[in-house]
Amino acid sequence: MKTFAAAITACFLAILAAPGEAGAQVQACTHKLAPITDEHLAQAVASLLRQHPELVVQTDDAPCRHARETARAIFRTVGRDHLKHLTGHEVVKLINGESYFTVERFRSAAPGELQKLAGALDDVRGRKLRSEANTVYAYFLSDDSLILMISSAAGREANAALFAEIQRGFPAPAQ
């Protein structure tokens, strides 16, 4: 019964997913935020989709609401608002078989804000995000951005490996 339910879920997610070019599927919240124009996330996701054609991109009908919900989940997880000076946000959701993961990019005007957030995320045991869903996270820093993967716990290892491939599409953080 469990595999049947998982198969139905995977079919449902595939039906909802939008086909097409990854660059068109990376969505930005531009309400009170500047668009991130360097295309690093779009190019990294496009490369990932070429290497893994079984992945499906799903659009988010409300990327700004998604950004706020993620910021609240991060606040609940680390106990502090490290995204007060947020200047940009991008998101893409990928369906990976029976699991999913989102990749979100946060840009901040405060130079140390994202580094402090990274340190706080490192301190969370089990890398579990405090949200309604059973989710885990990974992240990396690149220049003035923090790139966060939120994954369904079921696909944690496979999604983390895919996220590592996305990381290769970004410049290393400035030292």
What does this structure look like?
By secondary structure, the protein is α+β, with helices and mostly antiparallel strands. It has helices at 2-16, 22-25, 40-51, 63-78, 113-122, 156-167, and strands at 27-28, 56-58, 86-96, 99-108, 128-129, 135-142, 145-152. Strands 1, 2, 3, 4, 5, 6 and 7 form a 7-stranded antiparallel beta sheet that branches. Strand 5 (128-129) and strand 6 (135-142) form a beta hairpin. Helix 3 (40-51) crosses helix 6. It is globular. 32% of the residues are buried.
**What is the average of the pLDDT values?**
84
Output the structural class.
Answer: alpha+beta
Distance linking N and C termini: 51 Å
CA gyration radius, whole angstroms: 16 Å
Order of helices and strands: HHEHEHEEHEEEH
What is the topological layout?
Elements: H1 2-16, H2 22-25, E1 27-28, H3 40-51, E2 56-58, H4 63-78, E3 86-96, E4 99-108, H5 113-122, E5 128-129, E6 135-142, E7 145-152, H6 156-167
Briefly summarize what is shown.
The protein is of the alpha+beta class and 175 residues long.
Q: What are the defining features of this structure?
A:
single chain, 175 residues, alpha+beta, globular, disordered N terminus
